[in-house]
Design brief:
This protein has 493 residues and is mostly beta strands. It is 2% helix and 44% strand. The chain starts with a strand and ends with a helix.
Length: 493
């Protein structure tokens, strides 16, 4: 694995002169006089390049889902965001998917019944004759719980052309089960939701579903499932666009079912039928390790045993919270690992069911010197050749939090040859002076070689939504916080 600088840009220009410009853009546009905290920021880019940002905030007195958009690569945004949800309940935890024609947003909503239980709602936006984005007059309830008698939580969404798929955890049967809803008409209507976990309804806890599609037909879902005792990773797939799903199957193989806990599944799929599911589990306790299972034939078969990804001594350290993306059949894995003390970030490629390279640490500085966490991996490519793809890995980093206030900064590294080589390590993704604010809810997307990042940021004293876009290999340039600005923030506190 080669790491080299693609461009000579960054906090210090090539000649050594500090450049003071910024492309951080605040996109939640709340009234400064009643600035609410924003949360759950998510970003996506449509195939035609439009960028959409969603989040939840309570500027109207109750949490609602808001959307802003940019049609020029993130340079300009709407002066006022669009209210997505139409009901009177609290709308939280939005997720988003984009196609060429529509943007689809799904969320948790308490509008139904007196118990304020959360149901799953969706709204789809399309451009009208004047080119303005417009959502329908009515949201679509997906879980069918008209009276709000039970909780439905943490929806996830995927879309391809006119197909839209949503999965969530549903309490209708007692303990949580996994349900999926499918639309074949771009989100206008949905088929009756179907349960994916095949044990007795409501008999075990099934949660944290994740979904990925590889074109209009193949859909993969993975989740945590405790039917055998401790939590295992299960999956289900559809080869007819979600009209039906095959029987579910256990993925964390290699030990007895329910023998140890497996958590935080992530799934990625490619249009050649390749799909990868990664997670961390406790089979090698006392520490946790990252494991992977995969299919190269559209889910017809999976590996007979899950394979460990991190290569230090089994269970020696905590290797947790993996992220995965796939392009041109190549899987890209990243995770946080405390084998050297504080958390570092590691990266590894997998091709055709085998590892292409040894793992490599991707955060700079001394090993274990600071906590680098919350890795996000995205990939994008046309795939005329196996190396015709771009990859980006972004994370939150506490190395500059000298006073241990919980302040963190955003870093990334990227590749334009599908992971064969990477740009220089530790490229700053946000443009704020290091160690002066907290940043959470990081979400990234990639179109070609252009990286788009969205996050919630406390730099102004409240939690606000910021965007930064740049080509892979370029770096955010630092804007120092003036002493007067710091004094104003302290006075506001």
């Amino acid at each position: 694995m080669r790491f080299h600088a693609l461009f000579c840009l960054g906090l210090i220009a090539c000649g050594g002169e500090k450049v003071l410009v910024s492309s951080d853009v605040r996109v939640d546009q709340a009234d400064p006089g009643s600035d609410p905290d924003s949360e759950s920021s998510r970003v996506c880019t449509s195939p035609n390049g439009d960028i959409f940002a969603v989040w939840s905030d309570a500027r109207s007195g109750i949490p609602a889902v808001w959307l802003n958009e940019s049609t020029d690569g993130g340079l300009t945004w709407l002066e006022q965001p669009i209210l997505v949800n139409q009901g009177s309940g609290a709308a939280t935890h939005p997720e988003i998917a984009c196609t060429s024609d529509k943007v689809h947003v799904v969320w948790e909503d308490t509008r139904d019944g007196l118990l304020e239980n959360k149901n799953i709602y969706l709204a789809s936006g399309a451009r009208g004759g004047a080119g303005n984005l417009r959502f329908g007059d009515e949201d679509v309830q997906l879980d069918g719980d008209e009276d709000g008698d039970h909780h439905s939580l943490r929806p996830q969404i995927a879309a391809f052309r006119d197909s839209v798929w949503v999965v969530w955890s549903d309490q209708r049967n007692g303990a949580y089960d996994i349900y999926a809803a499918t639309s074949a008409d771009a989100g206008d209507t949905f088929y009756e939701p179907r349960r994916l976990d095949s044990d007795e309804p409501g008999s075990a806890f099934s949660a944290s579903p994740r979904i990925a599609s590889s074109g209009p037909d193949l859909v993969f879902v993975a989740w945590e499932d405790s039917r055998n005792g401790l939590s295992d990773i299960y999956g289900a797939m559809s080869d007819n666009g979600g009209l039906s799903f095959d029987d579910d199957y256990r993925l964390d193989l290699g030990e007895a079912a329910g023998a140890s806990d497996s958590f935080s599944p992530q799934v990625a799929a490619d249009d050649d039928g390749t799909a990868y599911v990664v997670w961390h589990d406790t089979r090698d306790a006392p520490g946790r390790d990252v494991y992977i299972n995969w299919t190269s034939n559209g889910g017809a078969s999976w590996a007979a045993e899950a394979v460990r990804v991190d290569s230090d001594n089994p269970g020696f350290a905590d290797s947790i919270l993996p992220s995965v993306a796939v392009a041109c059949g190549v899987g890209h894995l990243a995770w946080q690992d405390d084998r050297s003390g504080g958390y570092d970030l590691f990266y590894r490629r997998v091709i055709g069911g085998g590892f292409a390279d040894e793992e490599v640490r991707i955060n700079g500085g001394g090993a274990g010197a600071a906590n680098s966490v919350d890795a996000k991996v995205v990939a994008s490519g046309g795939c005329s050749t196996a190396s015709d793809a771009s990859v980006a890995i972004a994370w939150r980093d506490l190395r500059s939090d000298s006073e241990e206030l919980g302040y963190n900064d955003l870093y990334y590294t990227g590749s334009t040859d599908n992971g064969l080589s990477f740009s220089a390590l530790d490229l700053r993704l946000d443009a704020l002076q290091a160690g002066t604010s907290y940043k959470v809810d990081l979400s990234i997307d990639l179109q070609g070689e252009d990286l788009r990042a969205l996050w919630v940021d406390g730099r102004s004293g409240s939690a606000d939504v910021y965007f930064h876009g740049l080509p892979i290999g370029e770096e955010a340039v630092l804007v120092p916080v003036a002493a007067s600005e710091l004094e104003e923030e302290e006075g506001a506190d």
